[in-house]
Amino acid sequence: MTIVFSAGRIIANQHEVVVRLDGTARVSLQAAADDITLLGNGANVITAMGSGVNWSFRLDSAQQLEELADVLGIAIQ
User: Fold this and answer.
1) Which of the pair, 4 or 53, is modelled with greater confidence?
2) What are the backbone angles phi and psi of residue 75, rounded to the nearest 5°?
3) CA dist 44 to 19, 24, 26, 70, Å?
4) Which of 48, 49, 36 is nearest to 76 (CA)?
5) Mean pLDDT throughout 35-61?
6) 1 CA to centre of own chain
7) 12: helix, coil or strand?
8) Per the count of CB atoms within 10 A, which of 15, 34, 66, 71 is most buried?
9) What is the rounded radius of gyration, in angstroms, for the C-alpha atoms of the chain?
10) pLDDT at residue 17, as a whole number
11) Phi then psi for 54, rounded to 5 degrees?
12) Do residues 72 and 63 lie in contact, with contact meaning Cβ atoms separated by under 8 Å?
């Protein structure tokens, strides 16, 4: 599944998440689904921590966070 947000797009399946940020640098962030935490309650933040991975960013809406939670099969905290 692909989710487009203001800074780029998220490509996700039940095993991993890849974030591709727009811009000339063409930044890509990747993490296993087990390393992902989704923070709701208005924050709409996705974080990746573990196995040398440590990044986070804010999504545009709670709907995007819910779509990602459905694909990954993890609960929003």
Assistant:
1) 4
2) -85, 150
3) 15, 26, 23, 14
4) 36
5) 94
6) 12
7) strand
8) 71
9) 11
10) 96
11) -155, 100
12) no
Are 65 and 44 in contact, with CB atoms under 8 Å apart? yes
**Cα 5 to the chain's mean position, in Å?**
10
Burial classification of residue 14, based on how many CB atoms lie within 10 Å of its CB (0-12 exposed, 13-18 middle, 19 or more buried)? exposed
Amino acid identity, position 11: I
**pLDDT at residue 51, rounded to an integer:** 79
Instruction: Taking residues 41-56, report their average pLDDT.
Output: 93
Q: Calculate the CA 46 to chain-centre distance.
A: 5
DSSP-H helix ranges across 27-73:
62-72
